[in-house]
Amino acid sequence: MISEIGANLKDGAEVIDAGGRIVSPGFMDMHFHLDSVLTMGDPRYNESGTLLEGIEIWAERKRKLSVSDIVQRAGKALRLMVAHGTTAIRTHADVTDPTLTTVKGLLEVKKLYQNIIDVQITAFPQDGILTDPANLELLEKAVEMGVDNVGMIPHIEHTREDGVKSIEEAFRIAKTYDRDIDGHVDETDDEQSRFLEVVASYAIKENYVGRVAAGHCTAMHSYNDAYAAKLYRLLKKAGVTVVANPLINIHLQGRFDTYPKRRGMARVKELLNNGVNVALGHDCIMDPWYPLGRGDMVQVLFMAVHVGQLMSYSELKQAFNLITYNAAKTLRIGDKYGIKVGAQADLVVLDAFDELEALAFQRTPLYVIKRGRIVSKNTPEETQVLNPENNQFTNPRKEQPILRR
Ligand SMILES: [Zn+2]
Fold this sequence. Notes:
Elements: E1 23-25, E2 27-32, H1 51-61, H2 67-83, E3 86-94, H3 101-112, E4 118-124, H4 133-145, E5 149-150, H5 160-177, E6 180-185, H6 195-205, E7 212-216, H7 225-238, E8 240-244, H8 246-252, H9 268-273, E9 278-280, H10 297-307, H11 313-318, H12 325-330, E10 347-349, H13 355-361, E11 367-370, E12 373-377, E13 385-387, E14 392-394
Parallel strand pairs: 2-3, 3-4, 4-5, 5-6, 6-7, 7-8, 8-9
Antiparallel strand pairs: 1-10, 10-11, 11-12, 13-14
This protein binds zinc ion.
């Protein structure tokens, strides 16, 4: 943990000279799917680019899952994330596979990587809780096996009524086993999909204020403004964190539209302005739902500020909260998180002199520190560009900071 902050600290400690660059508390990814990561093209590619085709392809792929297959792919992805400064992640484990191999695999990954990155697992009923009689039982069994949070996907249930009932069941299990709620909620362009209000209302009724995260919430993009205004107030009161996944939803949403095409992302700017906690997720890397990604939350943030138009100077300066402090609030570890004495020493030494540069250049961090130990280090490549002012090759990275402010 951070024991002291200041100049000329105790001798004997390893010194990292950041040369005036910024240090951030570790980045946090609040929504990811480690079980499906890096399976793209196996058994086939998603040609329509829709959520639904992604779910179909995954249903085929998950029949041949094994623990070692998951450990190997998830480990690869986690190492990429650590290299880019992520020190904590919340992943989903699909629990509609009757063998629960996803849960076994991810519990093993969590343990194996525990000193490198904190992994929280959510039991995620990908195909719905009530669409098959076995699914509810599997969800509860996954929680008994030791996952951290209870998931849901009400917009995939067959009817509105089943969607509401699935939320009720998720809260029942969460309360029974004292787990937090981490749902996929309203990930559709259907403006009639209004499960988020039900989730928020249960958070209040079940005494779960501050213990609920709702991922995606893309239908919110299409709600009318009067309803959205009501929803902001309810979400704030319920202490629900909205987790937006801009890389994936800018790709998957609006696929049934012609033009103008909707962007299909939760209203990040308005939620923040109305006092709702918002965090971000990478969601996927090279799987049936998303063909790209490099495990970099700054890249996720880059997409978020563009799609959400959080591009004023002050908005950009504060944007890093979406992948740091707001996420810590979601995990309810705010008192142990940050750059302050007594906080856990999860730190990222960025190759940038301020937040704007970090977002503009998206460079790999120089160092990543987990609980006081270096877990990633990076030597920036020596780029040499011909400078006509003096006819010499120079490294543009050494001309930092690029703006004099
Ligand atoms: Zn997801």
